[in-house]
Design goal:
The chain is mainly alpha-helical and 154 residues long. It is 50% helix and 10% strand. It contains nine helices and three strands; from the N terminus they run H-H-E-E-E-H-H-H-H-H-H-H. It has helices spanning 2-8, 12-16, 47-60, 78-92, 100-113, 118-125, 130-133, 135-139, 142-146; strands at residues 23-24, 29-35, 39-44. The radius of gyration is 18 Å and the shape is globular.
Length: 154
């Protein structure tokens, strides 16, 4: 679940409301239904994540939601997901305070650092305003460090 949040830049609620039919393995996309602002959007699906999802699906065979809670047909609990993150952070020896939303921020920052245009990131995250997405331009310093001054070419 944590890998899927990071690999697609999902919000916690978007992950928990995912259903198997939202996964389009032929086109390698995920349809996010009724996201924030009641909008649908699509995000790219990593082939590594697709392999993980297939293995998961075979093992758990969810009925309604892709990630179901203790009761079949009910979505997984957000607090339980936060506990999973907390355990993973402790296991990794990270002392920094981390949230599920931090994984979404990391997704956007890493896309920006790898050269993805801000307009695409805005679309992938489902931001209606470019101002919301522009916060990542302040977060990412790696891209700035890669820029060479024209003076160096003289």
């Amino acid at each position: 679940m944590l890998s899927l949040i990071y690999s697609c830049g999902l919000r916690c609620g978007e992950l928990l409301s995912l259903q198997a039919q939202h996964i389009d393995s032929k086109r390698n996309i995920i349809l996010i239904k009724n996201a924030k602002g009641k909008k649908d959007r699509i995000v790219p699906l990593s082939l590594k994540i697709l392999a993980m999802l297939r293995e998961y699906y075979q093992l758990y065979k969810p009925k309604t939601y892709l990630f179901e809670g203790q009761k079949q047909g009910e979505p997984y609990d957000a607090r339980s997901l936060q506990l999973i993150l907390k355990q993973a952070i402790a296991k990794a020896g990270i002392s920094k305070a981390v949230t599920l939303h931090w994984l979404r921020h990391s997704y956007a920052t890493h896309l920006l650092e790898s050269g993805t245009d801000l307009r695409y990131i805005q679309e992938l995250l489902g931001h209606s305003s470019s101002k919301t997405t522009e916060i990542y331009t302040h977060v990412s310093t790696k891209s700035i460090q890669q820029i060479k001054s024209p003076f160096d070419e003289l």
